[in-house]
Amino acid sequence: MDKSLDEFVTVGKFLAPTEAQIAKGLLEAAGIDCILQGENANNMLALAFRARLKVRQRDEEAAIALLEATEGGLYDAGRGGFDA
């Protein structure tokens, strides 16, 4: 097995920790192992730090496809709100 596929890669960056948590929950619900890095760092200097959502490299394509599929749905993380 290729060990590089187990390394974590960034699939999303978020200014708001809440949006990062929503995206993380979406991936976890789909069975994709993920971590958030720096989700609380942006509380000090919000524009300087973004929370990074990371997945294993082997799950990168599926994670990106899932995150992109939610854009324009009921919740649009890019706009930071509900479309209802």
The gist of it:
It holds the Pfam family DUF2007. The chain has 84 residues and is of the alpha+beta class.
Structural commentary:
This protein has 84 residues and is an alpha+beta fold. The chain has a single domain, classed as Alpha-Beta Plaits (2-Layer Sandwich). The protein is 29% helix and 25% strand. It has two helices and five strands. The strands form two sheets. The protein has a three-stranded antiparallel beta sheet with strand order 1-3-2, covered by helices on one side. A hairpin with a 4-residue loop joins strand 4 and strand 5.
Radius of gyration over all CA atoms, rounded: 13 Å
Largest sheet: 3 strands, antiparallel
Helix content: 25-40%
Q: Number of helical segments?
A: 2
Gap between N and C termini: 45 Å
Low-confidence segments, given as residue ranges, are 80-84
Structural class of the secondary elements?
A: alpha+beta
Task: Give the neighbour order of strands across the main sheet.
Answer: 1-3-2
| CATH architecture title | 2-Layer Sandwich
Classify the fold: give the CATH topology. Alpha-Beta Plaits
Pfam families: DUF2007
Protein name: DUF2007 domain-containing protein
InterPro entries: DUF2007, N-reg_PII-like_a/b
